[in-house]
Every structure is written in C-alpha cells, then in structure tokens.
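Model: Ready when you are.
Researcher: Fold this.
Model:
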Amino acid sequence: MKKIMFFLSLFAGMITTHQVRAQELKDYVITMKGDTIYGEISSVKSNKVTMLVDSEKKTYYPPQLYRIYNHKKEKHYATSFIEVGIEKIRDSDPKMYVIKEKVKLKKKPLFTEILHDGDIIVYNFRKQSGGGMIMGANGKMMNGFSTSSNYYYALKRSTGEIAELKISGLLIGKMSKKNRYLYLAKMIADEPELAAKLENEEKLNYDLFSNYIREYNAIKKANDVYPIMIF
C-alpha cells in the first residue's frame, strides 16, 4: 500500500500550466521550439508517438518533442537519455549518476514517462533483463528466464545529477529509508529553509518524500525559467 500511495502522490505533484490546461482540453505535445500542438494521441512508444491533429495522422520522434501529455491515460512523457546510458559519479556519496557524454553524442533519446516535472524530474520506465539463450538439461539451447523491472530515477536539472530512487521487480526491493533521506537532502540542499525543514522530520515516508519534491519544484518554478533541454 505504501508503494501505491507513493506513486499516486507523485502523480498528484505534477502540476504545471500545461498540465492544468490539459485536464480541460485534450492530448498535447510540446515541440523543441516550445510550440504546443493539441490532438488525440493514439500511441506512445519509446521511439515515436502518433496522434491525430485536425483529423490528420501525425508521427513524431524524440528529437522533435520536449513533452507529451496523454489525457486518457493521465500520463506525461519527456524526451530523455535516462534509459540510454548513465554512469556513476566517481566518489559520490550518496551514490549519484549522470548521463554519459558519449551517449548524448552518439545515441538517440527516448520518450520516458515522468512522474514529477520541474528542477527535479522523476522518471519511470520498465526494462527487461535476462532472456538470453541457455543450455537445457538435454544439452539443447533454449530461451533463458526473462524478468521485467520498473526503474525510478530523479534527475536534478540544474546540476545534471541523477539518483536511483527505486527498482521494483522480481527479487528487487524498494529504496531504503536511509538512502531516501540522503538523496532528497542532497537534491534540495540549495533551498536552505526546505532543507532545514527536512532535517527536523522524524520519518520520511513515501508521501512526505513526494511532497518535498513538489514543494522544491514549486519554489524553483517561481524563481527560474527553464530552457528547453534534453536530459
């Protein structure tokens, strides 16, 4: 139940001008030029999105779009390299990551679901692992066991730092309470009042964790205007 409430609260935290408008209107995409196109989305895949715009079928690819909102599924997506390749920041404590520079130069970004948007962006994506060929008891090759896991990452836009919040799937558990606090404290450290408030928390449950991300993003939104960038 805690896991469910955590991610429900993440969705509740995603409030921006475009998102409020989308609740009253219909699906939309935001281009890399900052233009908003409304229509009816028929499919969102990691490498393309198709939608009807004025009765005409349109197909868009990650390099063309900045954000996507699917009203029917109540899901938001961002163009990102988060699924393509990250690497650990050397000697970072708690352990943090960044997008590999060579990935940005050589590979294409993908559409990835986002649960929070702002200076801290929370991503959610599913990844398959295993499934290769193995040798059976009879000596013949056969398909191996494949598992699917959900990955949750938080990226701080202003620094490019990434925290692995949670991985859920077979034999994989939740983020520890200690790491949850350490990651959040590091990401909101540049807002002293909010950071001080966090220090006084006796417990940091999933709902509270989400509330801090939402509050931090609201503060940053009031003070900063973010350029359109792919992370």
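Researcher: Now this one.
Model:
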Amino acid sequence: LEAAMRPTQQVRTHAIRMAHENIDKTLKAGEAILAQFDLTRRAEATILRGPHEDLESYLEAVDTLKGISRFFSSNKNFRSSEGILNHVNGLLAKSSLKIEEEFKQLMTTYSKPIEPDRLFDCLPKSLRPSKDDEDENANQSDHPSKGLETAVYKIPTLVPPRILPLMNDIAQQLVQAGNQQSCYKIYRESRGSALESSLRKLGVEKLTKDDVQKMQWEALEAKIGNWIQFMRIAVKLLLTGERKICDQIFEGGNFNKDQCFAEMATNSVVTLLSFGDAVAKSKRSPEKLFVLLDMYEVMRELQPEIEVVFEGKACSEMREAALGLTKRLAQTAQETFADFEEAVEKDASKTIVQDGTVHPLTSYVINYVKFLFDYQSTLKLLFQEFETGNETESQLAVVTTRIMQALQNNLDGKSKQYKDPALTHLFLMNNVHYMVRSVRRSEAKDILGDDWIQRHRRIVQQNANQYKRVAWAKVLQALSVQGAPGSTGSSTPADLNSSGVSRAVIKERFKAFNTQFEELHAKQSLWIVPDQELRESLRLAIAEVLLPAYRSFIKRFGYVTAPITLHDLLLIFGCCAELHPLASIELISRLYHMIAVPELQNYLYFVCPLKHLSFMLTDGVAPKTLYFGEQHFLNL
C-alpha cells in the first residue's frame, strides 16, 4: 500500500511546493507593482513641482518615470498596466516640455555677450590694447607678428563649469524624448546670438567690396588692423571656447554636435571673413601690400586652430572658406607686389627736385623695400603658394633686384629733365648713393649681395666725377692761357710778360675766372648733397682740382694785375671777419702792410672769390665757417 501511495504523495508534495512558489511570485509581483505605484506618486509630485527648485531631483524623477514605463510595458498582463502606462507617459510628456523650457532658460541665462575688456585680458600682453594705442599706432616700427609664436591665450569662461553638466543632462533627456531638433535650435539661437553680440561689441561689422572701395586709406588701414585683432580674438578665444562648450553640452549620447556647432557659428564666421574677402577683391595699390601680408600672416597663423575648431564634415564649408580667403590674400599680395615693380619703372611724375637731392620716389621705394624685409618669412610662404620649386630665397632676391633696377631706370629718365648736365650727374649721384647706403644698412644687403653694392658704388663715383668735370670745366678753363688771343707773337713786346702772354689776356682771364666762379656760386648754392660724408668728399675732390690750378695761375701771373685797392682790402676784411671775428682788426692791420708786395697784393685779391666754395653743395643750411676760404687764406 505504501509503495502504491508513494507516487501520489510525491505529486501532492510537488503541487504544494509549486503553489507556494506561485504565491511567493504573486506576492513579489504585487510588491513590485506597489513599489512602482509608490515611485510613480513620488515622481509625479516632483514633476508637478517643476525643475526650477531642484533640477537634479527633477531629472532623477524623469529617469524614474522612464523606468516605470519600461516596467509596465514588460508587464502588460497586469490588468491596470495600460492605465498606468498612459499616466506615466503623460507625466513624461509634461516633463519633456518643462525640461525644454528649463534648457532654454539656462541657455538664455548663461549666453551673455563677453565684454571687450574681458577678451582683451585673455590676450597675450603684447597684443593687449593700451590707453596710448592711438599714439603708438602712428609710430609702429616693429613687425606686428614677431614673437607671437610663443604667445599664450587664456580662453575665457563663457559658461560656468558647474552649469555645463546640467545642460548635458537636459540635452540627453530631450534627445531621448525625441526633441533633439528643439534642443539644437535652442542651442543655436542662444549661443549664436551671444557670439554675434560679442563680436559686435568688439567692432566687427559686415562690409562689402564697395564699402571698402569707398574708404579713405587711413580709415581702411585702421579697420584692417582691427580686423586682424578681431580674427585672433574670434578664433583663438571665442570660437575655441564655443567649441568646448558645444562638446561638453552634447557629450555622450547620439548627438550631431558638429552640425550644431557649424550652424551656430556660420553667421559670425561669414561676417568675419567677408571683410577679408572685400579687401582681397578691392582695387590693388602699392600701399596695400603690407596690410595684405599682415592679413595673410594672421590667416596662416590661425589655420591650425581653424582646423581643430571646425573639424568634421559638417564644418568643412567654413574650413574651406577660411582657406579660400588665405589663398585670395596670397594671390592679391603677389599681384600687388608685381604691380609695385611696374609702377616704380613707369612712375611718370613730372615733379623734379630742383636742388638735385634725393627724389621722393627713391626714399619711398627704398623704405618700401626695407619694410618688405620685415616680411621675409611671409614672402617666402607667399612664393611657395604659387611656385613649384624650393628656391624661394632666390626668388625674393630676383624680385628685389628687379625693383631696384626699375627704380634706377626711372631715375635715369628723371635725370634727363635737367637742363644743366652738372645737376643731372649730381642728382644721380645723390640718389644712387642713397640706394647704396640704405641697402648696406639693412637686411637687403644679404639678399642683393656685395656685388650689387660695389657695382652701384662705382656708379656713384662715376657721376661724382662727371659732375666735377662738367660743373668746373669753365672755371678751370679761365685759369688756362693756352690758345688765348695775344698768347702768340701778335702782341708787342711791351704788352707781353716773361711767359710771352699778353697782360690783357691775363687780366681777361682773371675777370673770366671771377665771373664764372660767381655764377657757379649763385647756381650751386641752391644745390644739395644731403649726405655729409659724400658732401665733404665732393668738396675735397673739387678743391684738389681747383686750388692747385689757381695757385699755379697766381704764381705765374699774379703780378700782372693792378695793385690792391681799399675796396679790395675791405672785401678781404669782410672775408676775414667771417673766419676770425675776434682777430679782424689785427688781420686788417697786417694785410695793409703787405700791400707793398705785388705778389701778395694779387694773391689777396683772389682770396675773396674762393670763399664761396664753402657755400656750394650745402645740406640746405649755409655753414657759418668758410672751409675752403679759411684753408686758402691760411696758406698765405
């Protein structure tokens, strides 16, 4: 019987155990359901209060409701599951709207424009504007981008760090709720508006090519300087900061952050680049070359940051726009460089310098070339943009040599406008000497080389010799009696001196010498040799030719002239007074007693004309001492 009943007992035991297990499961399921109801009540209370008081608790309540929704979705056999699901989903819909409002509120509250002073404080000290900027800008000699390689920029805090995680949580909730487009729109509008306002406060404005073309050069130059500063601030500070904010707000989850950032920054980037485009496309002129190089430099400098800030396919259009501007600036700068060379050679200004000094074109071109050498590295990059070879150094030398040759060709043409050949050579001597001296004192020496310097020094010497020959030929001719009338046998013996030269001829030559010298003095006292060393060497060269001829003439024929008169003595006194004012009375006394000696009488007679040598070839101010006159008088 026991054996027969044993299977029946086992079945009953198993049934009882299963019943107990089912009861336990039911109780646990009931407890779980009750717990979900309890969670729902608490979450509902938080949702109804809204996110303003405690955003973190609010977001936790939303997560709780999402868990409840998943629970009842997987337990649809519970007869009240559909009702509770509808209730929970309704709460989630309400929470989504409130979260969106909170996100908008947060973005609006913490998306204020940055004041310019705050941005300037984030710049390296060398780039910060000072109170004396206006004065300093008028006398900037240093190349603006020197030393910027190691400059440190401090990215400003655009949104408090404690707020960014909350924004990220909200953004994730909105995306999970299917409201990503609303989320992206709020971000674009708030951050985009803040960025545009920050740039406006700085002074950024959108200008067209026509706007640029209408500006006076001084105004345009100032705006270009500002634009360079704005570009650095925009890329290195504002856009870099905005990119970090975007990455933190949309960190994790399924966000299209590159597209969001691109759409947010587009208007600001277009405004910034539009000015650069307008300048690059405006009418070319030589003075624009340096600002074009400055603009090209800053775009090259910012290229690495642009690549990082605008990474991703969505931002490719802005990367390409920036790169396109860099290439346009390079192209315009190169064309302007070529225009300058042509403009130098074809400069048709009719204005000539009446005194033979350095022409304004010469100083302009030399200063232009010297300034170019502040941009050597930039010019090499410029040539690399369009050259296939690596000979950028020689390319710069070739272009510089062509500019200098164009200047010399133009000066040769201008020199032909002078009616006086002596002034022609003086003009060329002054200008080529200025070119040589300037090159020797600048970096152009290393580019043009010693051969160029030596070749042009020879040109200076050739023109100095030609000036000396042409200007002083008639004066020296007056001191020669060869071929003069009466120097042959046509005169009577009484009229001839021991050299067989007519006294009348000698007197005529004395008179001619004085006349020629006075005329030369009147004319050349208006001429200028601005370089002191060149001026002194020229004076010495003239003296070395003129004084020996004069002494020789006096030695041979000095006794032929009439005795010195009181008028001559007074002239001598005037000359001596200029030389030695304190010794004038003593000198006049000594000279008066010398009149009895015929040779000294005639020698003294010609001291006065030679005093004019000191006034010739001045630097624009008549000297107070009479160098040649003094030297000649002391030889007495």
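Researcher: Key takeaway?
Model: Confidence is low (pLDDT under 50) at residues 134-142, 484-494, 562-636.
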